[in-house]
Amino acid sequence: MNEPKSPLEQKPDYLVCICYGVMYSEIVQAIKGGAKDFDALQEELMVGTGCSSCIEEIHEILQEEG
Ligand code: FES
């Protein structure tokens, strides 16, 4: 019963990009689905194209998951 958890289970989900309502889990899923850099995530989810305040957070998620 002590199997390693997937990153999705380790962290509670939360809102990363307020402007576009993008959740942490959606970003992780997009990275797993092949969006390996910020540009790809931006294209797929529109994250970071509004107020830009989430950009640093997205880069951190990319480093953790990429
Ligand atoms: S919170 Fe992501 S662009 Fe504003």
Can you characterise this structure?
- The protein has 66 residues and is mostly helical.
- The chain has a single domain (11-65), classed as BFD-like [2Fe-2S]-binding domain (Arc Repressor Mutant, subunit A, Orthogonal Bundle), CATH 1.10.10.1100.
- The protein contains 4 helices and 2 strands, in the order αββααα.
- The chain has helices at 7-10, 24-32, 38-45, 55-65; strands spanning 15-17, 22-23.
- The structure holds FE2/S2 (inorganic) cluster.
- FE2/S2 (inorganic) cluster (FES) binds next to loops.
Helices and strands in order, then pairings?
Elements: H1 7-10, E1 15-17, E2 22-23, H2 24-32, H3 38-45, H4 55-65
Antiparallel strand pairs: 1-2
Helix pairs in contact: 2-4
Radius of gyration (CA) equals: 12 Å
How would you write the strand order of the largest sheet?
1-2
Q: In terms of per-residue confidence, which ranges show pLDDT below 50 for 5 or more consecutive residues?
A: none
The tally of domains stands at 1
Number of strands: 2
CATH superfamily: BFD-like [2Fe-2S]-binding domain
Summarize the structure.
The protein is mainly alpha-helical.
